[in-house]
Each structure stands twice: as structure tokens, then as C-alpha cells.
């Protein structure tokens, strides 16, 4: 079942939560809606489910107009961040619920429901726990029950709203891999809301990056990370810091001096050079065009991160260093850049570059 969303608008009073969103979701695809808090992810998911009525636009399930259908008719499976399991029902009955409440004509026989529930318990690796109540399960187990319950109705589309948001980091990571494996096994068209970029990049076939009710970019994890189309996507996905520059005939001038990053394919005028911490290397301060003072050093997983203050405006540039790098706070260092992105003040189009020594 593929999904087409066309020019969707949803306002809350004067506030446009969705501002003309268009998105094609392919059958069997796992797509992540990624964006900061308030960017419209949940509103878009709820509009697909039929829980929000948009002011304008179109939602097609295959070739059928979904907006003229009720929530029930759309037959979507929904999993929320805060497990909405029925507390007074055992795991088995929670999973069976969606099948049991169907009208008589569509309701399977109880033996068939039991078979389906057992298959799902197996799929979500909870066999043996069917007689427990939700209160007797861990958070991760409850979310797996919620997923089994959503899958029981054989939904046309599976919608997941930060399903692991309330869980601790280790459990989140495990469930992420587990969800991907289940998706590969069942092949449901799945829309997954998250504000966690690692989760989106690791899990999804494609990522739609939302900002202020608009989609800024849709692409594979590699597309959005390596080829961000807007400064927002560059800054939101992956770490980066930036320097104010002036572009003059393809050269980037930082406080009047040319940066040794080669030609910048960007219009003349004020601009910013954005740099990822892993693209910053330390150099001899007497030879480097950009130099500054280390104002902070901290351990970050397998690396060390250094904050370097550069120029008269004391712009902050972050560098990712090997833990053995022998530097200390207060030290003067030079900086070289292996890669960068330049965005004119008027933010399109982006120009990504590989820095070359001048
Ligand atoms: N029922 C409502 N009434 C008024 N404003 C709302 C309502 N629901 C959402 N909004 C506003 O619409 C915007 C988008 O909300 P939405 O929940 O879709 O964002 P989100 O990207 O899912 O955020 P989060 O990651 O925090 O859940 C927000 O600014 C929010 O305050």
C-alpha cells in the first residue's frame, strides 16, 4: 500500500502546524519523520491516521482518497510513545482486542484469534508472557505488546509515534534493531516519528526532515547526512559549527583573509561556512589561516571534542580529536578544514565542498 500526501495544511487556530506538506511513501517502505519538537511530525501522523482533519490537501492510500474515510475504515495500526495498553486486560487480550471488537461479519472465530495472537507473541518474542497484565511488564515489553496489538488487525499502514521515546538509551537501541527486523519480516508500509537523528538514520529506508510544518528534505539516510539541501538539515542532522564569511569571486573571506578551502561555488556576498567536527584538524597556529584558542575539551565516546574560539568575533568551532591528541585548554591552535558546506544568506541552493589546501 503506497501513500501519497499532497499539499497538506493543518492549522490550530492561527498557527499553521502543517504548511503544505507533500510526501510519497512507497509500499513496504519504513520512513522516518524527523524534526525538532513542534515541527509537525505528530500532526502529520495523526492526519494520516484520520485523527486530525486537515484544512486542505490530499491523502491517498493507494489510489483511494483517505480523507473521505473514517479512522476505522483506514485500517491503520498505531503505536504511541506512552503505551496505551488496557491495564485491566492480560497481554493476550490486549493483542486480541482489535480483532474481537470487529463487527460480526469481519470478526474471526475465537480459535483463529488465538492462533493469530500466538503468532504475534512469537514475532515480538513475548511467548510465555500472555497471561501477565501490563503492570507486570517492563517498558520495552509493553511497547512490544503495543506493536503486536497494532499488527493484529493486519493494518494497511503502520504508524509509530516515538514508540521508544520513554525508554532508556540501551533498550531503545535494542528495540530499534528489533523493529527493523520485524519490518523486514512483515513488510508493512511504516511511518515512524522521532526527534532522534540516530534512530531515524539507523532505522529508516528514507528520512523526511520536518521544520516548522514544512518538509525540508526527503532522502535516504546517506542523502540527508552527506548531501543536506538546506542549512537547517545540515545543522539538525549531525553536529556542525559555522563561521561567518564573505564570498568574493569564489573565495571565502573570514574577517578579510581568504580561507584555504579552495573554490566555493556560491554567489558573492555574506555567507556561512558550516563544518562538521570530524572535518576539522589541528595545525600549526603560525601557518594556519584560521587560528584560535582552545576554550574547552571533553571526552565524547572514542574521541575528544575541542571547542576553539576563533577570530575577533570569537566564533566557536568544534573539532573531533583522537583521545591521544596532546592539547590543553588555553592553548593556541591553527585549524584546517577537510570538508564544508556554504549556504548563502538566502538559504538555497546549498554548495557542499571538499576543502583543498590553497
Ligand atoms: N491540539 C492542538 N492545539 C493547538 N496547537 C497544537 C495542537 N497540537 C499541536 N499543536 C501545535 O502544532 C505544532 C506541531 O505539533 P506536533 O505535535 O505535530 O509537533 P511534533 O513535531 O510532533 O513535536 P514533538 O516532537 O514535541 O512531539 C506545535 O507547535 C504544537 O504546539
TrEMBL record:
Pfam families assigned: ABC_tran (PF00005)
GO biological process assignments: quaternary ammonium group transport
Domain ABC transporter per the UniProt entry, residue ranges: 3-237
Keywords: ATP-binding, Nucleotide-binding, Sulfate transport, Translocase, Transport
Keyword Transport: yes
GO cellular component, one term: ATP-binding cassette (ABC) transporter complex
GO molecular function terms listed in the Swiss-Prot or TrEMBL record: ABC-type sulfate transporter activity; ATP binding; ATP hydrolysis activity
Superkingdom per UniProt: Bacteria
InterPro entries from the UniProt entry: AAA+_ATPase (IPR003593), ABC_SmlMolc_Importer (IPR050093), ABC_transporter-like_ATP-bd (IPR003439), ABC_transporter-like_CS (IPR017871), Mo/tungstate-bd_C_term_dom (IPR008995), P-loop_NTPase (IPR027417), Sulph_transpt1 (IPR005666)
Keyword ATP-binding: yes
UniProt similarity note: Belongs to the ABC transporter superfamily.
Name of the protein described by the UniProt record: Sulfate ABC transporter ATP-binding protein
Organism: Hansschlegelia quercus
Amino acid at each position: 500500500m503506497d501513500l501519497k500526501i499532497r499539499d497538506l495544511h493543518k492549522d490550530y487556530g492561527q498557527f499553521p502546524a502543517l504548511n503544505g506538506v507533500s510526501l510519497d511513501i512507497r509500499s513496504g517502505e519504513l520512513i522516518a519523520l524527523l524534526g525538532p519538537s513542534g515541527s509537525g511530525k505528530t500532526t502529520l501522523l495523526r492526519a494520516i491516521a484520520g485523527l486530525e482533519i486537515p484544512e486542505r490537501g490530499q491523502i491517498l492510500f493507494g489510489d483511494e482518497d483517505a480523507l473521505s474515510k473514517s479512522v476505522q475504515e483506514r485500517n491503520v495500526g498505531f503505536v504511541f510513545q506512552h503505551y496505551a495498553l488496557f491495564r485491566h486486560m492480560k497481554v493476550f487480550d490486549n493483542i486480541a482486542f482489535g480483532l474481537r471488537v470487529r463487527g460480526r461479519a469481519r470478526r474471526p472465530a475465537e480459535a483463529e484469534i488465538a492462533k493469530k495472537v500466538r503468532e504475534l507473541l512469537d514475532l515480538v518474542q513475548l511467548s510465555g508472557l500472555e497471561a501477565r497484565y501490563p503492570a507486570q511488564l517492563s517498558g520495552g515489553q509493553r511497547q512490544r505488546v503495543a506493536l503486536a496489538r497494532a499488527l493484529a488487525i493486519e493494518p494497511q499502514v503502520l504508524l509509530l509515534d516515538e514508540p521508544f521515546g520513554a525508554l532508556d538509551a540501551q533498550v531503545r537501541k535494542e528495540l530499534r534493531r528489533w523493529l527493523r527486523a520485524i519490518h523486514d519480516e512483515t513488510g508493512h508500509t511504516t511511518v515512524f516519528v522521532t526527534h532522534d537523528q540516530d534512530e531515524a538514520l539507523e532505522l529508516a529506508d528514507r528520512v523526511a526532515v520536518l521544520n516548522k510544518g514544512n518538509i525540508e528534505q526527503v532522502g535516504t539516510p546517506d542523502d540527508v547526512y552527506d548531501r543536506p539541501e538546506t542549512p537547517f538539515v545540515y545543522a539538525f542532522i549531525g553536529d556542525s559549527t559555522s563561521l561567518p564569511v564573505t564570498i568574493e569571486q569564489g573565495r571565502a573571506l573570514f574577517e578579510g583573509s581568504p580561507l584555504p578551502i579552495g573554490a566555493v561555488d556560491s554567489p558573492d556576498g555574506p555567507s556561512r561556512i558550516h563544518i562538521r567536527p570530524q572535518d576539522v584538524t589541528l595545525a600549526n597556529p603560525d601557518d594556519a589561516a584560521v587560528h584560535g584558542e582552545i576554550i574547552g575539551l571533553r571526552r565524547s565516546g572514542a574521541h575528544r571534542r575541542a571547542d576553539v574560539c576563533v577570530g575577533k568575533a570569537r566564533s566557536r568551532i568544534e573539532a573531533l580529536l583522537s583521545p591521544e591528541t596532546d592539547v590543553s585548554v588555553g592553548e593556541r591552535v591553527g585549524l584546517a578544514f577537510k570538508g564544508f558546506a556554504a549556504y548563502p544568506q538566502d538559504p538555497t541552493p546549498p554548495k557542499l565542498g571538499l576543502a583543498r589546501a590553497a
